[in-house]
Amino acid sequence: MPEADPTADIQIELHSDDAEPEAEQRPDPADRDELSVITIGAPAADPRPFVHFGCLKQALAHARSDTETEVGGVLVGESYPSERGLVIELTAALPAATEEAGLGYVTFSHQAWTEIYRQLDAMGTDLRILGWYHSHPGFGIFLSHQDRFIHNNFFAAPESVALVVDPLFERVGLFGWREGELVSLGGVRILADEACFAAAGEMAEKLSYDVADEEEGMASLRERLAQVGQAVRRILKGQ
Ligand SMILES: [Zn+2]
């Protein structure tokens, strides 16, 4: 399979929050009157990730825009303690230019990071980068060796998460840090206000939280690559 050189773009430095004061406790999103929580799977109790409907919709739309290759971007939002645990509230998905992506990998180029920071500045908010998302078109939900490399290097903060979506099979998975281990967070909590409650329900009904282990995932990726190879050979032969 095509392996991107994982070290090609690691000299990018994320904005560091070295002197950040201890965040103040805030109401948990599940206790906020104006929001409803719709769950897919069985989301973790701690950390407590929440994805706003608009954010998940953006990531899914991006993934569905190209079902031939992996596409991705960053997830921005806020993280703070609530009475119930460490909240990771994802507000928006910003697509990265993935000219380097192929089937089986996605990378963040220097240019992609520059563009992401430009978009973040333009939004003029206090939202921070809290993770990333990318697609696995047709080969299921898992973190490949390369994905783990990216997470370890760019998203090492304890509140950093990785959202993986399979736009062909309508599957999602969310991964994050627990006791220093990068693990599946068991499910996704979608946050919806009244205006998007119905749409969020429909979205949740279509999606399944279905995480495969890496070996299983790599096997279906190889199968998909073989299918693509066959299709390419047929095209080349003019059939
Ligand atoms: Zn991946």
Characterise the protein shown here:
This protein is an alpha/beta fold and 239 residues long. The protein has one domain: 3-Layer(aba) Sandwich (Cytidine Deaminase, domain 2). It has five helices and ten strands. Strands 1, 2, 3, 4, 5, 6, 7, 8, 9 and 10 form a ten-stranded mixed β-sheet that branches. A hairpin with a 2-residue loop joins strand 7 (171-178) and strand 8. The longest helix is centred in the C-terminal third of the chain and has 23 residues, at 214-236. The radius of gyration is 18 Å and the shape is globular. Residues 6-13 and 15-19 have low confidence and may be disordered. Residues 134, 136, 144, 147 line the site of zinc ion (ZN).
Name some characteristics of this structure.
239 residues; Cytidine Deaminase, domain 2; 10-stranded mixed β-sheet; alpha/beta; binds zinc ion; 10 strands; single chain
CATH superfamily: Cytidine Deaminase, domain 2
Radius of gyration: 18 Å
Shape estimate: globular
Count of discrete structural domains: 1
Largest sheet: 10 strands, mixed
| Gross CATH architecture | 3-Layer(aba) Sandwich
How much of the sequence lies in strands comes to 25-35%
Portion of residues within helices:
25-40%
Can you tell me the CATH class?
Alpha Beta
Structural class: alpha/beta
Number of strands: 10
Topology:
Blueprint: E1 36-41, E2 48-52, H1 53-64, E3 72-82, E4 85-95, H2 110-123, E5 128-135, H3 145-154, E6 161-166, E7 171-178, E8 181-184, E9 187-192, H4 197-206, E10 208-209, H5 214-236
Bound molecules: zinc ion.
Zinc ion binds at residues 134, 136, 144, 147.
